Each structure stands twice: as C-alpha cells, then as structure tokens.
Amino acid sequence: MTVFTACSANTESDEPSTHATNPVIETKEAKIKENEALRFIKQAYSKEELGLDKITKDYTFMVASSGVDIEGTKYIKVVANVIVKNDETTKDGKETFSMETIGEYYISFDGKKVLKKDMKTDKYTELENRYDAFKQKADKSEKADKSTSKTK
C-alpha cells in the first residue's frame, strides 16, 4: 500500500537528518499546476485511460505541492487516492484511516508530456497530450461564464 502524505513547506530543522531526502523541486516555472492540473487529469482523460475504470470505491485526486524529477524532466504529480480503514485504532478506541494511492499521473513542467505510472510495475507510459484542447475548452467556458455574468 502506498500512502500519500502532505509535505510541510518548512524544510529547515535543528535536528540532523537520519535519512536521505530528495531536494524540493519548486513548481513556479510549471506551465500547469495546482487546481488546473487536477482539472486537466480529471477532464481530459477517461477512467479507462487513467486505469480507474475497475475501481469500485470512491476516489479523490490530489496534486503534490512540489515537483518530481523523472529521468531528468520535471513534472507535476497528480494522484488518485481511496480512503482505507486501518486495523489500528487510536488510544481512545477511535478508528483510523489512511489514503491508498491507486493512480499516479505526471504533467511535465512545459506541458508537453503526460505520463501514467503503472502501480504494479512502477513503469511509466506516455498518455496522449490533450492539454491544448483542454486549455481551449477551459478558455471558452471562462469567456462564456463572464458574458453570462455581465447580462445578469
């Protein structure tokens, strides 16, 4: 089981590190990030293309706050997660839950490549890049929303 955890922006510590860490990759230069990256993955690809068509549980998408380097290229990481009940409980007997990652998707900072990670083999396959079509559709929708709000 892969657990997705949020990372704190505070990377400084007075304690010496006891394990190797990867440097934080800032996403400022990414063409697509945050909520737009989530919408892009959810709207531009079918459940089948994302490998989520056989998932029977409810799942949510999340985007990582820092970038990922895959073979020298920087990517924005979007994951699909399901909530899983843990066997452990808290000290006062309450149930605990964690998130299991069921899909990982990567959008290159320049917006030219979209990868899907095979969760069983950890290999990446390139998806058809539909960012330009997604962006055009989003821009048209935004213009329509603006013109509708002006007429009200």
Description:
By secondary structure, this protein is an alpha+beta fold. 24% of the residues lie in helices and 30% in strands. The protein contains three helices and six strands. The protein has helices at residues 34-44, 47-50, 131-151; strands at 60-63, 68-70, 73-89, 95-108, 114-117, 124-127. Strands 1, 2, 3, 4, 5 and 6 form a six-stranded antiparallel β-sheet that branches. The relative contact order is 0.17. Residues 1-20 have low confidence and may be disordered.
Broad structural category: alpha+beta
Query: Rounded to an integer, what's the Rg over CA atoms?
Result: 18 Å
Number of DSSP strand runs: 6
Number of helices: 3
- Proportion of helical residues: 10-25%
> How much of the sequence is in beta strands?
25-35%
Shape: globular
Poorly predicted residue ranges: 1-20
| N-end to C-end Cα span | 50 Å
H/E topology pattern: HHEEEEEEH
Largest β sheet strand count, sense and barrel closure? 6 strands, antiparallel
**How confident is the prediction overall: mean pLDDT?**
83
